[in-house]
Amino acid sequence: MTSAAPPAHRSAALGALFALLGAAMFGINGSMSKVVMAAGISPQQLTFARTVATAAIAGMVLLITDRSQFRLSGREVGFFAALGVAGLAMIQWLYSVAISRLPVGVALLFEYTAVVLVALTALVVFKEPVHRRLWWAIGGVLVGLAVVAQVWDSSLDGLGIAAGLGAAVAYAFYFLAGERGVARRPPMAVAFWAALFASVFWGLFSGWWSIDPALLVERISLDGALSSVEVPLWVPLAWIVTLGSFAPFVLIFMALRHVSATAVGILASSEVLFAFLVAWVWLGETLLPVQIAGAALVLVAIVVAQTARDRVAARVDTPEVPPEVP
Predict the structure, then answer these.
(1) What is the pTM of this model?
(2) Does the first or last residue of the chain, that is N or C, have fewer Cβ atoms within 10 Å of its Cβ?
(3) DSSP states of 204-239 as a string?
(4) What is the structure's pLDDT at 268?
């Protein structure tokens, strides 16, 4: 099974729509996650909830469509354990830590530098041919991030920056390992097994058992422009694990059936823009004009880096967008 659809059923417009909808949902998810964590759910506990929900929903889909995907070889157990723990579990946790200490859009900028790390790893480790524009992209990302972080006066939280960069490293690993995983198994199966192992890991270390069940029904403010709106905590939490996690993943898979992996990756990068917009309108998070310019430079550099592997992507029919992102 591959992510490509028969040529007769391809629609570039539909593929772009799916990718942009997925990016928008991920962008909203950052602000929603901030509200939930401010109410008392830790980054580890939120990560556990997201991975459990993803594994459960993907597992139900496989139960209906392809039960053979529940069988793993010994080698695959190790592969998916690494993918789930070092990739998925660390991405979501470090991203949650980053957005708890940084503006949502800024945290995403740091995480999306994974695209540059992927292209660089492909060149240095796997000896894949990449376009020389990769070096321009790396320079643009470094300069842009330095401006956004305002390194001259250290205006951003250092731990938040470290978490964002750590998320980028984990995302790059998951990107490369996931790309190879979907070459052998359907994306839904890769998502299931990675989420399952991530759930086992955080089931041991997240402290989910310390959550007071009463907290889930406690009414909380949605903060910012929606501070007058109060809902039970389980409402935004349910949004995060369904419409903010699993649904966007499915939309990205659907996009890959209509347009190339490189195009989907570029469109998915718009998550950063959606995150900035939502956080500005909802939570009142703003950037200085010079930081906005730096963010624009990073986003352009990410797009450039995404196209640096274009020739490789054209030869390998696997998604460049992994089945799980924050």
Answers:
(1) 0.78
(2) N
(3) HHS-GGGS-HHHHHSEEE--GGGTT-EEETHHHHHH
(4) 75
